[in-house]
Amino acid sequence: MPSSAIQPQTLQRLLSPSCGLTLEVTRQTDSTNAELLRRSAQELPHGYCLVAQEQTAGRGRQGRRWLSDATGSLTFSLLWHFSRPAGQLGGLPLVVTLALLRACTALQVQGLSLKWPNDLLRHGRKVAGVLVELTPGRVEDARAIIGIGINLHLPESLFDQIPTPATDLRNEQGIPPEPNTTLAQVLNRLAPMLQQFAQEGFAPFQQEWMEHAIHQHRTIHLILPDARTVVGECAGLNAEGALLVRQAGQISTFHNGEISLRLAP
Ligand code: ATP
Ligand code: BTN
């Protein structure tokens, strides 16, 4: 397997200076999100990006696990200071998944789509995930820790441990994209998109997101936090990134929270 170690100098050289990011590459941590949360009292600068060569206890949404490989995964978190309250950041994970899609498209990856609210899929299988967490104690000026995990090249032994359909970014010859280039492609797109989101909200991204949504106009099941299931047709997203579902001719709106979306079989 090719080494996928991130080389800080190479990565720094590939990053656009206009992104204004501060980069830290660490050899190992439990979770880059957990590490930035632990450091949230230290006043890390806006745009601080922690990249882990290896993550030992990666986190997904709702307490789930994110599994990664020391040489075949990208795991990193970006701290972003907003001047908006957390309640206005519902579209944030969607903007991040769209940045991932744009970056992977630029790397010639085929078969990409998006699943609301936080998944990048390839041929219908999850290839990257986003976990947004908020630092405590901020009300009107939320600070988001944007965690991203990308599968470049996972070994079979790891796929065996992932309970849901998963894949990686290898091409038909079995070659993954180069890790430093991939990370730079993501960060160089993500930073300006976050700047735009901070100023204009989700609306500028709404159309493009829906064009790539695997569930658009399809029958979906939503699993709600109280375990109730809603079945309906996906009717798109509103300008905040909330999901619109049509049931018996009526449209209901579901805000990004502890909701899971499944495609009907
Ligand atoms: P949801 O629709 O609620 O987001 P999900 O299955 O995508 O459902 P998440 O919490 O977003 O759930 O992601 C965590 C899940 O992703 C884990 O429970 C596991 O099934 C799966 N997973 C863990 N590691 C990986 C990985 N490296 N690649 C793909 N999927 C993974
Ligand atoms: C999900 O799909 O539920 C989200 C997965 C997010 C994984 C990334 S890897 C870097 C960062 N650190 C974590 O512990 N999780 C996120």
Produce the secondary structure layout.
Layout lengths: L7 H7 L7 E8 L2 H7 L9 E8 L2 E2 L5 E2 L6 E9 L10 H15 L5 E4 L3 E4 L2 E10 L8 E9 L4 H4 L19 H22 L2 H10 L6 E5 L5 E9 L5 E5 L2 E5 L5 E4 L2
Parallel strand pairs: 1-2
Antiparallel strand pairs: 2-5, 3-4, 5-9, 6-7, 7-8, 8-9, 10-11, 10-14, 11-12, 12-13
Helix pairs in contact: 1-5, 3-5
The structure holds adenosine-5'-triphosphate and biotin.
> In terms of per-residue confidence, which ranges show pLDDT below 50 for 5 or more consecutive residues?
none
Indicate how many domains the architecture comprises.
2
Per CATH, the class of the largest domain reads Alpha Beta
Give the percentage of residues in beta strands.
Answer: 25-35%
Per CATH, what is the topology of the largest domain?
BirA Bifunctional Protein, domain 2
Mean pLDDT over all positions: 95
- Shape call: globular
Strand order of the largest sheet: 1-2-5-9-8-7-6
Order of helices and strands: HEHEEEEHEEEEHHHEEEEE
Instruction: Give the termini separation.
Output: 35 Å
Strand tally, please?
14
CATH architecture of the largest domain: 2-Layer Sandwich
Number of helices: 6
Please give the radius of gyration in angstroms.
18 Å
Q: Estimate percent helicity.
A: 10-25%
Reported for the largest beta sheet, the result is: 7 strands, mixed
Please tell me about this protein's structure.
It contains six helices and 14 strands. With 265 residues, it is an alpha+beta fold. It has two domains: 8-209, Bira Bifunctional Protein, Domain 2 (BirA Bifunctional Protein, domain 2, 2-Layer Sandwich), CATH 3.30.930.10; 215-263, SH3 type barrels (Roll). The strands form three sheets. The protein has a seven-stranded mixed sheet with strand order 1-2-5-9-8-7-6, sandwiched between helices. Helix 1 crosses helix 5 (179-200) and helix 3 runs antiparallel to helix 5 (179-200). The chain is globular. The mean pLDDT is 95. It binds adenosine-5'-triphosphate (ATP) and biotin. Biotin binds next to helix 2, strand 3, strand 5, strand 8 and strand 9. Biotin is lined by residues 31-33, 58-61, 64, 66, 75-77, 118-119, 129-131, 147-149.
